[in-house]
Amino acid sequence: MKDLNAKVFSLQNTVNQQEQEKRSLSLRINGLAFYPDEKADPSILAKRVFDRVLQPIMVQAKANDKLAKVPSLAGTIAGCYRIRGHTALTGTGSPPPVVVKISTEQVRLAILQSKRRATPPPLDTEKDWGIQRISIMEDLTPQAYKTLRDLKRLEQVNRKAINNTSKKKQFYSKNNKR
Q: What pTM did the predictor assign?
């Protein structure tokens, strides 16, 4: 039974790695307003993502020498779609996330490195719909996301433990000097 469980675990990891490799050039954008015209023509969504989110970030990346030039829409986005299964924004909640396949690793990396300073805030109409911010992250598999979340929690626990240990050392060193 242990051999079978080990094989299943190994296969699951292999499948996850392959899926993550397929997503290696993809980014996930949360908080971008949903408009019905996107359903009729997927290129409208790609243009909206480029104009509204990616181009301002790439301009910042160019200013910081992360890119030699700001690529065009065709040179940036290889594919773009909304994640199915999410309901459209109806005044409450959030719009469906957008997955964007970036054309090159260099552009993807420049976007990730520059996103913090250059991601545009929501428009007033988007704020009225309840959108608080636009965020960009790597498109991770559920298993990779869970691992990342667990590692972040562990890091927080370790940081608290280190802080508590430092405080105890300070306390004891102050009290032992007398």
A: 0.70
pLDDT tens by residue, 168-177 = 566 566 666 6
Q: Per-residue pLDDT tens for 65-107? A: 999 999 999 999 999 989 876 555 444 567 889 999 999 999 9
H or E stretch covering 20: helix 2-22
Kindly state which CATH superfamily the domain 24-139 is placed in.
Answer: L1 transposable element, RRM domain (3.30.70.1820)
Domain ranges of the chain: 24-139
The angle at the Cα of 96, spanning 123 to 156, to the nearest 5 degrees, equals 90
Tell me the HSE value of 51 on the side-chain side, using a 13 A CA sphere: 6
Give Cβ neighbours of residue 59 (< 8 Å, ≥ 6 apart): 70, 118
